[in-house]
Design goal:
The protein is globular, with a radius of gyration of 18 Å. Helix 7 packs across helix 8 (about 205-215) and helix 7 packs antiparallel against helix 9. About 35% of the residues lie in helices and about 10% in strands. It starts with a helix and ends in a 17-residue tail after the last strand. It is built from nine helices and seven strands, in the order αββαβββαβααααααβ. The protein is α/β, with parallel strands linked by helices.
């Protein structure tokens, strides 16, 4: 039976350290062309997300879902980010999340890898459908930051919930937005209309500020990011940092 499971397992989805180039889905805000940033890694391409697939993800129920943050995680040092892979397991429309040492270990237990690294506040399939639906989350999240300006974390979080995030995921995104506002506001206002990337592929100074000063806490607590979920976005990332996740959850659908 074990040999059969291994034979049927998906290929190793972990990042390929020998990969070169940028991975993403450039748009008018990116500042890079498809020739400079590609939604493919070798022969691998991310799955497509028709509306029906996104709707199905929203209809699946997470058992023991994480709760929203009740205090600012940026008041403490960034927690150590756990390695491994987050995977889902379930049936008949209900599923649970668990962190495994590797994708191979998850598959041996009949679980489906959903992103690299440990599970966190944004690991649910409901949050995945938000990440997949918006190939440019920078714009709507930035809009939530502006809409919630003066209302604190609660105002930003309310806007993020309207985007479809779960309460737990919306809470870490809201604290991230508020922390970036406090740390990077001047440079971000100056670059508000600038492309996300410079000609050499690097992030603009605003996004780099967010990456360096807010990113470590966010990544450690959120669990899911676009790059460790293999989702191509308007922010292009080095392809050697991207997980090639298949996102085939048919076995836990309601049908």
């Amino acid at each position: 039976m074990l040999l059969l499971l291994l034979a049927c397992a998906d290929p190793d989805p972990s990042p390929d350290p020998s990969c070169e180039g940028l991975y993403g889905a450039p748009n008018e805000n990116t500042g890079l062309s498809l020739g400079e940033c590609s939604p493919e890694i070798g022969e691998w391409t991310p799955r497509e997300w028709p509306v029906a697939a996104l709707t199905e993800l929203r209809g699946l129920e997470l058992i023991d879902a994480p709760v929203a943050l009740s205090s600012d995680p940026y008041l403490e040092a960034a927690p150590e980010r756990e390695e491994g892979v987050c995977a889902v397991q379930g049936e008949a429309g209900r599923y649970s999340l668990a962190t495994f040492p590797s994708a191979r270990d998850a598959q041996e237990q009949g679980a489906i890898p959903t992103h690299g690294g440990a599970c966190g506040l944004c690991s649910s399939l409901e949050d995945l459908q938000v990440y997949a639906r918006y190939d440019d989350l920078t714009q709507p999240v930035r809009a939530c930051g502006l809409e919630g300006f003066g209302e604190g974390v609660e105002g930003v979080q309310s806007c993020l919930l309207d985007l479809g995030f779960t309460p737990a995921c919306a809470s870490i995104w809201a604290y991230n937005v508020e922390h970036t506002r406090a740390q990077c506001q001047d440079i971000c206002i100056e670059l508000l209309s600038d492309p996300y990337h410079a000609d050499d592929g690097s992030l603009n100074a605003c996004l780099q500020c967010d990456e360096e000063l807010s990113g470590p806490v966010f990544k450690a607590l959120a669990g899911r990011t676009r790059r460790n979920s293999g989702l191509a976005s308007a922010l292009c990332r080095p392809c050697e940092s991207v997980w090639r996740i298949a996102h085939d959850y048919g076995s836990i659908s309601k049908d």
